[in-house]
Amino acid sequence: MGHEHHPTNDAPVLQRQQTHRIAHLARLELTDEQAAMYATQLSRVLAYVEQLRALDLEGVKPMLHPHDRFGEAVADDPREGLDPGVVRRLAPESEGAFIRVPKVLGGTEGGGA
């Protein structure tokens, strides 16, 4: 797929026709206006990728996560929960000791999934 280069850097600039082709491959339909907009946006993404590719990363250790303690197990100790009266006051609707929540499962009357 051919593309032009932006005059101020080596990042490719996508044309509207190329954006239509990408949309076709993704099974999307775009108007010419949308294709022009996405061509501009995708060109910016490609320019950013070019900036990243130009970085000198010699000696930089790859990482899986920005935090040193990612995935570390923490104690799951029981602790005191919220007071039931507070929970009922925070709920949009309550009835006695219960709070009313929107139905989340389909099915028949009586609550079956």
Report on this model:
With 113 residues, the protein is mainly α. The chain has a domain at 4-53. It is 35% helix and 7% strand. The chain is built from three helices and four strands. Strand 3 (94-95) and strand 4 (98-99) form a beta hairpin. The mean pLDDT is 83.
Q: Spell the H/E element sequence.
A: EEHHHEE
Main structural class? mainly alpha
Strand content: 5-15%
Measured on Cα atoms, how large is the radius of gyration? Answer: 27 Å
Q: For the terminal residues, how far apart are their CA atoms?
A: 50 Å
What is the makeup of the main sheet?
2 strands, antiparallel
The strands making up the biggest β-sheet line up spatially as 1-2
Mean pLDDT comes to 83
The helix content is 25-40%
Low-confidence stretches: none
Given the structure, what is the number of helices?
Answer: 3
- Say how many strands there are: 4
From the spread of the alpha carbons, the general shape counts as flat
Outline:
By secondary structure, this protein is mainly alpha-helical. It contains three helices and four strands; from the N terminus they run ββαααββ. It has a domain of 50 residues.
Topology diagram in text:
Blueprint: E1 4-5, E2 12-13, H1 16-25, H2 32-53, H3 84-90, E3 94-95, E4 98-99
Antiparallel strand pairs: 1-2, 3-4
Helix pairs in contact: 1-2
Descriptive terms for the model:
single chain; 113 residues; mainly alpha; two-stranded antiparallel ribbon; 4 strands; flat
